[in-house]
Structure to design on (420 residues):
């Protein structure tokens, strides 16, 4: 039985459709920025994207090769572990299915790695079948560096720290290896609908 | 506004960590937000300094409605990255914008409580002297390697001899002589973006710069 906070009524309780706002979240119209370090500055000429690890042959795309892959626009809700959710965000990106086309792997997990050293871990099943993208556009504009540009991972059904900014590649692994926040107190999987925020949730 | 909390079974924390505060209305509706811990780990009471966001949901309650003796739920401590390392060797730089100084204050307090003399510079940017939090305590903590400095961006008192204007390349040049071993930057997003980018431009290694960003997103 939770402790009732005397006199607390709640001024934002009716703001969102309950089937779209996970427990403990509130809606925002801003796009807040959360990063553990400075925003990296990577020139597109130096940018590439690789898939490494448990894979027969390393896959690599330059920026131009990556942008020549089939891309799509999509509208999704996003949920940050710091409690904000934002509905109907518009993105453009390459589905991970397109990057994994022709990839043969026994791996069941992956670690996304990024400029600046950030990493995050995900089960492969959570990024295939139209569930994740490498996004390079937001709201009909190139993705801002502070929001992860030139490109970020986007996995909208998990807390947003899984949607790694400044992503540069994926390392395929046979075990689930904790990434940056997952090693610093945050949940290994991060399902907002089950409120998997921290260790022990 | 600073709240002093007596927490049953508090497991202790590291300076820089935060807690989640969860409020529950009589009908069961709940709202939760994160707040940085201001107190040093061994301070006895847990101290939260909360900035009121007028159109927020939780901060107006915590800064206006709560009275001594009230209870609410806390979860934490949370976060294992933006934290003070008591074994740090070499200079430390703390840069805070507005209420972003709160987790940095926990670090300054821990450092003082430990009798640590690691050279530590705090650069605190505020709109005016009136809104500088912990003014007197920061003056008291000065010495033994701890050096706070202030820059006021909008108004300054008569005879002000501290810094003025935003934290930019020129100001950092005056305040920070070399590259610190560890840097912590906390404040609103534009502040943190500007300061972190300026430090990187000066040649500081990005991996030694830890940032914590927040904005008035409803808190």
């Amino acid at each position: 039985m939770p402790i009732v906070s005397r006199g607390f009524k709640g001024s934002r309780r009716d703001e969102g459709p309950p089937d779209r706002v996970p427990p403990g979240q509130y809606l925002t119209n801003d796009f807040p920025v959360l990063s553990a370090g400075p925003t990296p500055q990577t020139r597109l000429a130096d940018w590439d994207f690789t898939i490494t690890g448990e894979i027969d042959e390393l896959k690599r795309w330059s920026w131009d090769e990556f942008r020549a892959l089939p891309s799509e626009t999509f509208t999704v809700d996003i949920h940050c572990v710091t409690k904000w959710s934002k509905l109907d965000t518009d993105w453009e990106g390459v589905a991970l299915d397109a990057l994994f086309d022709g990839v043969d792997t026994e791996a069941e997990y992956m670690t996304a790695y990024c400029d600046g050293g950030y990493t995050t871990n995900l089960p492969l099943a959570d990024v295939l079948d139209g569930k994740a993208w490498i996004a390079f556009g937001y709201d009909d504009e190139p993705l801002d560096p502070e929001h992860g540009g030139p490109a970020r991972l986007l996995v909208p059904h998990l807390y947003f720290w899984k949607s790694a900014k400044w992503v540069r590649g994926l390392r395929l692994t046979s075990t689930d290896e904790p990434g940056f926040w997952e090693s610093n107190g945050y949940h290994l999987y991060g399902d907002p609908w089950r409120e998997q925020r921290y260790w022990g949730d | 506004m600073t709240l002093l909390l007596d927490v049953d079974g508090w497991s202790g924390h590291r300076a820089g960590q935060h807690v989640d505060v969860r409020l529950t209305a009589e009908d069961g509706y709940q709202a939760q937000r994160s707040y940085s811990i201001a107190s040093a780990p061994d301070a006895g009471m847990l101290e939260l300094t909360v900035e009121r966001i007028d159109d927020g949901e939780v901060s107006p309650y915590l800064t206006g409605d709560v009275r001594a003796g009230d209870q609410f739920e806390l979860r934490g401590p949370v976060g294992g990255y933006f934290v003070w390392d008591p074994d740090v060797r070499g200079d430390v730089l703390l840069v805070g914008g507005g209420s972003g100084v709160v987790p940095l204050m926990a670090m300054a307090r821990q450092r003082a409580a430990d009798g640590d003399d690691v050279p530590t510079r705090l650069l605190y940017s505020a709109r005016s002297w009136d809104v500088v939090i912990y003014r007197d305590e920061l003056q008291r903590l000065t010495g033994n390697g701890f050096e706070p400095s202030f820059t006021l961006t909008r108004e300054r008192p008569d005879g002000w001899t501290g810094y003025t204007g935003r934290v930019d390349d020129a100001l950092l040049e005056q305040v920070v002589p070399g590259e610190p071993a560890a840097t912590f930057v906390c404040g609103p997003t534009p502040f943190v973006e500007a300061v972190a980018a300026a430090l990187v431009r000066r040649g500081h290694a990005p991996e030694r710069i830890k940032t914590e960003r927040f904005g008035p997103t409803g808190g």
Remarks:
- The longest strand of chain A covers residues 84-95.
- Chain A touches chain B at residues 2-13, 24, 26, 28, 30, 32-41, 82-84, 116-117, 146, 180-181, 183-185, 198 (CB under 8 Å).
- Residues 49-194 of chain A form a domain with the Sulfite Oxidase; Chain A, domain 2 fold (CATH 3.90.420.10).
- The CA atoms of residues 187 and 197 of chain A lie 5 Å apart.
